[in-house]
Protein backbone atom coordinates (compact mmCIF):
# COMPACT_ATOMS: atom_id res chain seq x y z
CA UNK A 1 0.00 0.00 0.00
CA UNK A 2 1.49 3.32 -1.06
CA UNK A 3 1.75 6.02 1.60
CA UNK A 4 -0.01 8.41 -0.78
CA UNK A 5 -3.38 6.66 -0.92
CA UNK A 6 -6.41 8.33 -2.46
CA UNK A 7 -8.93 10.29 -0.41
CA UNK A 8 -11.79 8.55 1.38
CA UNK A 9 -10.05 5.14 1.30
CA UNK A 10 -10.06 3.77 4.83
CA UNK A 11 -6.63 2.99 6.21
CA UNK A 12 -6.72 -0.59 7.60
CA UNK A 13 -5.69 -1.16 11.20
CA UNK A 14 -2.66 -3.47 11.38
CA UNK A 15 -2.90 -6.74 13.28
CA UNK A 16 0.25 -5.94 15.25
CA UNK A 17 0.07 -3.58 18.26
CA UNK A 18 0.56 0.13 17.73
CA UNK A 19 3.65 1.67 19.35
CA UNK A 20 3.04 3.18 22.79
CA UNK A 21 3.60 6.90 22.12
CA UNK A 22 4.39 9.20 25.05
CA UNK A 23 4.31 12.63 23.42
CA UNK A 24 5.34 14.78 20.51
CA UNK A 25 9.06 15.38 21.05
CA UNK A 26 10.67 17.34 18.24
CA UNK A 27 10.23 18.70 14.74
CA UNK A 28 12.96 18.78 12.10
CA UNK A 29 12.57 21.82 9.86
CA UNK A 30 14.51 22.57 6.70
CA UNK A 31 15.30 26.28 6.45
CA UNK A 32 16.97 28.14 3.62
CA UNK A 33 19.02 30.64 5.66
CA UNK A 34 20.37 29.27 8.93
CA UNK A 35 21.55 32.64 10.24
CA UNK A 36 18.13 34.27 9.73
CA UNK A 37 16.40 31.29 11.32
CA UNK A 38 18.77 31.41 14.29
CA UNK A 39 17.94 35.09 14.80
CA UNK A 40 14.23 34.23 14.83
CA UNK A 41 14.21 31.13 17.05
CA UNK A 42 17.09 32.03 19.40
CA UNK A 43 17.35 35.82 19.52
CA UNK A 44 13.63 36.56 19.23
CA UNK A 45 11.89 33.53 20.77
CA UNK A 46 14.64 32.58 23.19
CA UNK A 47 14.89 28.85 22.48
CA UNK A 48 18.07 27.41 23.95
CA UNK A 49 20.89 26.08 21.77
CA UNK A 50 21.98 22.57 22.72
CA UNK A 51 24.38 22.18 19.82
CA UNK A 52 25.03 23.76 16.42
CA UNK A 53 27.28 23.57 13.40
CA UNK A 54 27.35 25.09 9.93
CA UNK A 55 24.46 22.90 8.74
CA UNK A 56 22.11 22.53 11.71
CA UNK A 57 21.00 24.04 15.01
CA UNK A 58 19.53 21.91 17.81
CA UNK A 59 17.17 23.83 20.09
CA UNK A 60 15.22 23.04 23.22
CA UNK A 61 12.65 24.73 25.42
CA UNK A 62 13.26 25.77 29.02
CA UNK A 63 11.84 22.70 30.78
CA UNK A 64 13.12 20.05 28.36
CA UNK A 65 15.69 17.44 29.37
CA UNK A 66 16.06 15.61 26.04
CA UNK A 67 18.58 16.92 23.52
CA UNK A 68 16.21 19.03 21.43
CA UNK A 69 12.64 19.93 20.54
CA UNK A 70 13.47 21.60 17.23
CA UNK A 71 16.12 20.96 14.61
CA UNK A 72 16.80 23.67 12.04
CA UNK A 73 18.63 22.11 9.10
CA UNK A 74 19.90 24.11 6.16
CA UNK A 75 18.51 23.03 2.80
CA UNK A 76 17.31 24.23 -0.59
CA UNK A 77 13.54 23.97 0.06
CA UNK A 78 11.81 25.11 3.23
CA UNK A 79 9.84 22.13 4.55
CA UNK A 80 9.20 19.80 7.48
CA UNK A 81 11.48 16.74 7.41
CA UNK A 82 10.22 14.84 10.47
CA UNK A 83 7.43 14.94 13.07
CA UNK A 84 9.10 13.02 15.91
CA UNK A 85 7.38 11.21 18.77
CA UNK A 86 8.99 9.66 21.81
CA UNK A 87 7.79 6.14 22.64
CA UNK A 88 7.65 4.44 26.03
CA UNK A 89 10.55 2.00 25.69
CA UNK A 90 13.17 0.77 23.20
CA UNK A 91 10.87 -2.13 22.28
CA UNK A 92 8.27 0.36 21.04
CA UNK A 93 10.62 1.44 18.25
CA UNK A 94 10.46 -2.16 17.02
CA UNK A 95 6.67 -1.99 17.35
CA UNK A 96 6.52 1.19 15.28
CA UNK A 97 8.61 -0.36 12.53
CA UNK A 98 6.44 -3.49 12.42
CA UNK A 99 3.23 -1.45 12.52
CA UNK A 100 4.10 0.70 9.52
CA UNK A 101 5.58 -2.18 7.54
CA UNK A 102 2.26 -3.98 7.85
CA UNK A 103 0.54 -0.80 6.63
CA UNK A 104 2.75 -1.00 3.55
CA UNK A 105 4.48 2.30 4.31
CA UNK A 106 8.08 3.04 3.50
CA UNK A 107 10.27 2.83 6.61
CA UNK A 108 13.91 3.56 7.42
CA UNK A 109 15.64 2.44 10.64
CA UNK A 110 18.85 3.96 11.97
CA UNK A 111 20.37 2.55 15.14
CA UNK A 112 22.51 5.69 15.44
CA UNK A 113 19.50 7.96 14.92
CA UNK A 114 18.72 10.58 12.31
CA UNK A 115 19.79 13.59 14.39
CA UNK A 116 22.38 14.32 17.04
CA UNK A 117 21.27 13.47 20.55
CA UNK A 118 18.74 10.82 19.48
CA UNK A 119 19.57 7.13 19.17
CA UNK A 120 17.78 4.16 17.61
CA UNK A 121 14.91 5.56 15.55
CA UNK A 122 12.58 4.62 12.75
CA UNK A 123 11.23 7.11 10.23
CA UNK A 124 8.22 6.38 8.06
CA UNK A 125 6.23 7.93 5.25
CA UNK A 126 2.86 7.48 6.90
CA UNK A 127 -0.45 6.76 5.12
CA UNK A 128 -1.26 10.49 5.01
CA UNK A 129 2.10 11.32 3.42
CA UNK A 130 3.75 12.76 6.54
CA UNK A 131 7.31 11.93 7.67
CA UNK A 132 6.90 10.51 11.18
CA UNK A 133 9.73 9.42 13.48
CA UNK A 134 9.58 7.21 16.58
CA UNK A 135 12.43 6.96 19.12
CA UNK A 136 13.22 6.22 22.74
CA UNK A 137 17.00 6.47 23.23
CA UNK A 138 18.06 10.05 23.77
CA UNK A 139 20.88 12.11 25.22
CA UNK A 140 19.86 13.90 28.42
CA UNK A 141 20.82 17.54 28.84
CA UNK A 142 20.41 20.07 31.63
CA UNK A 143 16.79 20.86 32.40
CA UNK A 144 16.80 24.63 32.80
CA UNK A 145 13.77 24.87 35.09
CA UNK A 146 15.67 26.70 37.83
CA UNK A 147 18.05 28.62 35.60
CA UNK A 148 16.22 31.86 36.26
CA UNK A 149 19.33 33.71 35.15
CA UNK A 150 18.50 32.49 31.63
CA UNK A 151 14.72 32.97 31.85
CA UNK A 152 13.36 35.57 29.43
CA UNK A 153 10.13 37.55 29.68
CA UNK A 154 8.68 35.56 26.78
CA UNK A 155 10.16 32.18 27.75
CA UNK A 156 9.02 29.12 25.77
CA UNK A 157 8.82 26.33 28.33
CA UNK A 158 7.57 23.24 26.43
CA UNK A 159 6.93 21.86 22.98
CA UNK A 160 3.16 21.48 22.98
CA UNK A 161 1.96 20.16 19.60
CA UNK A 162 2.09 19.88 15.85
CA UNK A 163 -0.73 20.76 13.45
CA UNK A 164 -0.99 18.89 10.15
CA UNK A 165 -2.98 19.82 7.05
CA UNK A 166 -4.65 16.87 5.33
CA UNK A 167 -7.43 16.66 2.73
CA UNK A 168 -9.55 14.02 4.46
CA UNK A 169 -9.80 14.63 8.22
CA UNK A 170 -12.03 11.62 9.10
CA UNK A 171 -9.62 9.28 7.33
CA UNK A 172 -6.68 10.79 9.19
CA UNK A 173 -8.59 10.77 12.47
CA UNK A 174 -9.29 7.03 12.26
CA UNK A 175 -5.66 6.32 11.40
CA UNK A 176 -4.41 8.31 14.40
CA UNK A 177 -7.02 6.74 16.71
CA UNK A 178 -5.78 3.31 15.59
CA UNK A 179 -2.29 4.55 16.44
CA UNK A 180 -3.47 5.27 19.97
CA UNK A 181 -4.36 8.96 19.84
CA UNK A 182 -7.58 10.21 21.45
CA UNK A 183 -9.76 13.07 20.21
CA UNK A 184 -10.26 15.98 22.59
CA UNK A 185 -12.16 18.38 20.31
CA UNK A 186 -13.35 18.61 16.70
CA UNK A 187 -15.17 20.92 14.29
CA UNK A 188 -18.08 19.64 12.19
CA UNK A 189 -21.20 20.87 10.40
CA UNK A 190 -24.78 19.64 10.24
CA UNK A 191 -24.03 17.77 6.99
CA UNK A 192 -21.44 15.63 8.76
CA UNK A 193 -18.36 17.26 7.23
CA UNK A 194 -15.39 17.26 9.62
CA UNK A 195 -13.10 20.28 9.30
CA UNK A 196 -10.56 19.63 12.06
CA UNK A 197 -9.72 17.30 14.96
CA UNK A 198 -7.44 17.72 18.00
CA UNK A 199 -5.71 14.51 19.13
CA UNK A 200 -3.52 13.69 22.11
CA UNK A 201 -1.26 11.14 23.75
CA UNK A 202 -0.02 13.24 26.67
CA UNK A 203 -2.67 14.61 29.02
CA UNK A 204 -3.32 17.92 27.27
CA UNK A 205 -5.64 18.93 24.44
CA UNK A 206 -3.33 17.71 21.69
CA UNK A 207 0.01 16.40 20.55
CA UNK A 208 -1.09 16.92 16.98
CA UNK A 209 -4.15 18.27 15.20
CA UNK A 210 -5.58 17.61 11.77
CA UNK A 211 -6.74 20.65 9.82
CA UNK A 212 -8.71 20.07 6.65
CA UNK A 213 -7.01 21.47 3.55
CA UNK A 214 -4.67 20.70 0.70
CA UNK A 215 -1.97 18.41 2.04
CA UNK A 216 0.07 16.77 3.39
CA UNK A 217 1.55 19.98 4.81
CA UNK A 218 2.71 21.31 8.18
CA UNK A 219 0.31 23.95 9.46
CA UNK A 220 2.34 24.89 12.54
CA UNK A 221 4.48 23.85 15.47
CA UNK A 222 3.43 25.15 18.91
CA UNK A 223 5.43 25.97 22.03
CA UNK A 224 3.88 26.69 25.43
CA UNK A 225 4.57 29.54 27.80
CA UNK A 226 3.62 29.69 31.47
CA UNK A 227 1.37 32.75 31.25
CA UNK A 228 -0.44 35.09 28.85
CA UNK A 229 1.98 37.91 29.63
CA UNK A 230 4.82 35.87 28.11
CA UNK A 231 2.98 35.94 24.78
CA UNK A 232 2.28 39.67 25.05
CA UNK A 233 6.00 40.23 25.66
CA UNK A 234 6.80 38.46 22.39
CA UNK A 235 4.38 40.76 20.57
CA UNK A 236 5.96 43.82 22.20
CA UNK A 237 9.43 42.58 21.27
CA UNK A 238 8.41 42.03 17.65
CA UNK A 239 6.97 45.55 17.57
CA UNK A 240 10.19 47.01 18.98
CA UNK A 241 12.21 45.13 16.34
CA UNK A 242 9.86 46.41 13.58
CA UNK A 243 8.91 42.89 12.54
CA UNK A 244 5.25 43.08 13.54
CA UNK A 245 4.36 42.12 9.96
CA UNK A 246 5.43 38.58 10.94
CA UNK A 247 2.51 38.40 13.40
CA UNK A 248 -0.17 36.54 11.45
CA UNK A 249 -2.94 36.07 14.06
CA UNK A 250 -3.53 37.11 17.62
CA UNK A 251 -2.91 37.41 20.40
CA UNK A 252 -6.27 35.94 21.31
CA UNK A 253 -8.01 33.05 23.01
CA UNK A 254 -9.16 29.97 21.16
CA UNK A 255 -12.63 28.51 21.66
CA UNK A 256 -11.26 25.09 20.77
CA UNK A 257 -8.74 24.19 23.54
CA UNK A 258 -9.46 27.42 25.49
CA UNK A 259 -5.78 28.33 25.02
CA UNK A 260 -4.38 31.83 24.71
CA UNK A 261 -2.49 32.00 21.40
CA UNK A 262 -0.28 33.87 18.97
CA UNK A 263 0.70 32.84 15.43
CA UNK A 264 3.90 34.18 13.90
CA UNK A 265 5.88 33.37 10.75
CA UNK A 266 9.58 32.55 10.62
CA UNK A 267 11.86 33.83 7.80
CA UNK A 268 10.84 30.90 5.55
CA UNK A 269 7.13 31.25 6.29
CA UNK A 270 7.00 28.29 8.70
CA UNK A 271 4.18 29.05 11.15
CA UNK A 272 4.86 28.96 14.90
CA UNK A 273 2.14 29.13 17.52
CA UNK A 274 2.86 30.38 21.04
CA UNK A 275 0.30 28.75 23.29
CA UNK A 276 -0.77 28.63 26.93
CA UNK A 277 -3.58 27.66 29.33
CA UNK A 278 -5.34 24.69 27.76
CA UNK A 279 -6.71 21.92 30.02
CA UNK A 280 -6.18 18.39 31.38
CA UNK A 281 -7.50 15.47 29.27
CA UNK A 282 -6.06 12.44 31.07
CA UNK A 283 -9.20 10.74 32.36
CA UNK A 284 -10.26 7.71 30.33
CA UNK A 285 -13.76 9.15 29.87
CA UNK A 286 -12.61 12.65 28.97
CA UNK A 287 -15.45 13.94 26.74
CA UNK A 288 -14.93 15.06 23.16
CA UNK A 289 -16.04 18.65 22.57
CA UNK A 290 -17.63 19.20 19.15
CA UNK A 291 -17.89 22.69 17.68
CA UNK A 292 -20.21 23.86 14.91
CA UNK A 293 -18.10 25.13 12.01
CA UNK A 294 -20.33 28.23 11.86
CA UNK A 295 -19.76 29.14 15.51
CA UNK A 296 -17.87 32.42 15.35
CA UNK A 297 -16.07 31.64 18.62
CA UNK A 298 -14.65 28.23 17.71
CA UNK A 299 -11.31 29.56 16.43
CA UNK A 300 -11.24 32.78 18.46
CA UNK A 301 -13.24 32.98 21.69
CA UNK A 302 -13.54 36.75 21.30
CA UNK A 303 -15.05 36.40 17.82
CA UNK A 304 -12.13 37.94 15.95
CA UNK A 305 -11.88 36.90 12.29
CA UNK A 306 -9.35 34.37 11.03
CA UNK A 307 -7.11 35.78 8.31
CA UNK A 308 -7.36 33.83 5.03
CA UNK A 309 -3.63 32.97 5.01
CA UNK A 310 -4.16 30.91 8.18
CA UNK A 311 -6.49 28.63 6.21
CA UNK A 312 -4.53 28.50 2.97
CA UNK A 313 -0.79 28.75 3.73
CA UNK A 314 1.30 25.90 5.15
CA UNK A 315 4.73 24.30 4.82
CA UNK A 316 5.61 21.43 2.52
CA UNK A 317 6.63 18.08 4.01
CA UNK A 318 9.40 15.81 2.73
CA UNK A 319 9.62 12.14 1.92
CA UNK A 320 12.46 10.02 3.30
CA UNK A 321 14.68 11.01 0.38
CA UNK A 322 14.24 14.69 1.21
CA UNK A 323 11.91 15.45 -1.70
CA UNK A 324 8.68 17.46 -1.22
CA UNK A 325 5.58 15.29 -1.04
CA UNK A 326 2.93 16.10 -3.68
CA UNK A 327 0.05 18.18 -2.31
CA UNK A 328 -3.41 16.64 -2.76
CA UNK A 329 -6.38 18.97 -3.06
CA UNK A 330 -9.18 18.74 -0.49
CA UNK A 331 -12.52 17.85 -2.10
CA UNK A 332 -14.70 18.28 1.00
CA UNK A 333 -15.92 21.79 1.82
CA UNK A 334 -13.26 24.09 3.23
CA UNK A 335 -13.71 25.81 6.56
CA UNK A 336 -12.86 29.18 5.06
CA UNK A 337 -15.36 28.78 2.21
CA UNK A 338 -18.28 28.00 4.52
CA UNK A 339 -17.51 30.70 7.10
CA UNK A 340 -15.81 33.60 5.30
CA UNK A 341 -16.94 35.73 2.36
CA UNK A 342 -20.22 36.45 0.64
CA UNK A 343 -21.28 32.79 0.53
CA UNK A 344 -20.18 31.93 4.05
CA UNK A 345 -21.39 32.91 7.48
CA UNK A 346 -20.61 32.58 11.14
CA UNK A 347 -22.60 33.37 14.24
CA UNK A 348 -21.95 34.38 17.82
CA UNK A 349 -25.43 33.51 19.11
CA UNK A 350 -26.96 30.69 17.11
CA UNK A 351 -30.55 31.89 17.57
CA UNK A 352 -29.66 35.11 15.73
CA UNK A 353 -29.28 33.06 12.55
CA UNK A 354 -33.05 32.68 12.15
CA UNK A 355 -36.10 34.92 12.18
CA UNK A 356 -36.23 38.69 11.97
CA UNK A 357 -32.95 39.20 13.77
CA UNK A 358 -30.97 37.61 10.94
CA UNK A 359 -32.43 40.03 8.43
CA UNK A 360 -31.60 43.07 10.53
CA UNK A 361 -28.37 45.01 10.17
CA UNK A 362 -28.51 45.31 13.95
CA UNK A 363 -28.10 41.53 14.39
CA UNK A 364 -24.58 41.81 15.77
CA UNK A 365 -24.45 38.13 16.63
CA UNK A 366 -24.65 37.13 12.97
CA UNK A 367 -21.77 38.02 10.64
CA UNK A 368 -21.90 38.16 6.86
CA UNK A 369 -19.28 39.10 4.31
CA UNK A 370 -15.51 39.08 4.18
CA UNK A 371 -13.70 38.76 7.48
CA UNK A 372 -10.23 39.88 6.50
Intertermini distance = 42 Å
- Give the total of beta strands: 20
Approximate strand percentage: 25-35%
Radius of gyration: 20 Å
User: What is the residue-mean pLDDT, rounded to a whole number?
Assistant: 92
Instruction: Please provide the ordered H/E string of secondary-structure elements.
Output: EHEEEEHEEEEHEEEEHEEEEHEHEHE
Specify the helix fraction band. 10-25%
Name the overall outline: globular
Tell me about this structure.
The protein has 372 residues and is an alpha/beta fold. The chain is built from seven helices and 20 strands. The strands form two sheets. The protein has an 18-stranded mixed beta sheet that branches. The protein has a two-stranded antiparallel sheet with strand order 19-20. The protein has helices spanning 34-44, 90-103, 169-178, 228-240, 308-312, 335-339, 356-359; strands at residues 21-31, 48-52, 56-60, 70-74, 79-87, 107-110, 121-125, 131-135, 158-166, 182-188, 194-200, 208-212, 217-224, 247-253, 260-265, 271-276, 289-292, 315-317, 341-347, 366-369.
In brief:
By secondary structure, the protein is α/β, with parallel strands linked by helices.
Helix-strand blueprint:
Blueprint: E1 21-31, H1 34-44, E2 48-52, E3 56-60, E4 70-74, E5 79-87, H2 90-103, E6 107-110, E7 121-125, E8 131-135, E9 158-166, H3 169-178, E10 182-188, E11 194-200, E12 208-212, E13 217-224, H4 228-240, E14 247-253, E15 260-265, E16 271-276, E17 289-292, H5 308-312, E18 315-317, H6 335-339, E19 341-347, H7 356-359, E20 366-369
Parallel strand pairs: 1-4, 5-8, 5-18, 9-12, 10-17, 13-16
Antiparallel strand pairs: 1-5, 2-3, 3-4, 6-7, 7-8, 9-13, 10-11, 11-12, 13-18, 14-15, 15-16, 19-20
